[in-house]
Amino acid sequence: MVRWEPGARERLQAAALELFATRGFEQTTTAEIAQAVGLTERTFFRHFSDKREVLFLGQDLFLQIFLDGVTAAPPTAAPLEVVASALHSATSFFPDERRSYSRLRQSVIDKNPALQERESHKLSGLATTIAEALRSRGVQEPAATLAAESGVTVFGIAFAEWIRQGEERSLATITTDVLGELQNLTRSTAPTSP
Amino acid sequence: MVRWEPGARERLQAAALELFATRGFEQTTTAEIAQAVGLTERTFFRHFSDKREVLFLGQDLFLQIFLDGVTAAPPTAAPLEVVASALHSATSFFPDERRSYSRLRQSVIDKNPALQERESHKLSGLATTIAEALRSRGVQEPAATLAAESGVTVFGIAFAEWIRQGEERSLATITTDVLGELQNLTRSTAPTSP
Fold this sequence. Notes:
Two copies of one chain form a homodimer.
Chain A: H1 8-23, H2 30-36, H3 41-47, H4 59-72, H5 79-90, H6 99-110, H7 113-136, H8 143-162, H9 171-187
């Protein structure tokens, strides 16, 4: 008989991250993670397919929150305005209470090339998803992919800033600043066509 | 005694790509690749550390050609102009004779998630390298990373278009068009500051 463990997933996730950060991702076993919170390895595998999944849980929700922002943008919004709406929607996924978790998670990923590859791939999947949503709104290529990829770039830069030691601004504030920088960047360049 | 095999690396690379494309990457062994061109598996491993390396050979050269373009830009160039110079330098790495090889390589990567992760990671390494070169020129953050990432986005879109079936324009021509689209994209958005 399987006994229901309230909050088991969250406890496993917190313990795993702690172990990954202190001992290293490779050096931590699923048995040790389970043991750290008094659960069995079997319980671990009821919640996660492998230890990598602990770091990449909730990816569907992560994508959906960007898509909600795309939907929320008015029909007349320019592509980059739609993307800005997606980015601002996503900031609700990362409230300030989550900052220290996100920071620790990133420190684990930064130390492991395979996790870095997985993270890069996750972000390129995000760009693909946003580009598709833009095309559904009638945005042509390459504008749809350019806008989506630029959005993911802005998100990546804002997120890295948000988790920097000592940073206290919210992700929403930083995102607005970086979006403004993107516009300055292309504006400060001499036009390529008359 | 090791006998010198003229062009062994290129023959192995061509045979490997052919096998990956027809049988699948996972299904192809290094022994089969070597055998296809009458060489031993030992010779294969003198040229490549594993079969994945066949697809990711020449990465240092790939990065260097973008950096050459950064160096070639005049000191007064705006960040995005420096990036445009890097992208145009890189087009010499992909002459039209290489298009069918690049197309076949991409079709192999597109079928394999692990190879896709590696490719995403390679492109994020390119962005890091260009951002560093921009910072050495005195470009501040986040402008340096934004410009570098935008450049890699433009490169990715232009490259995907270049290898599309039926596409005949050069990578240089497509790159110029996509850079223009990037500027239009940010111009068509209402300014966020007065």
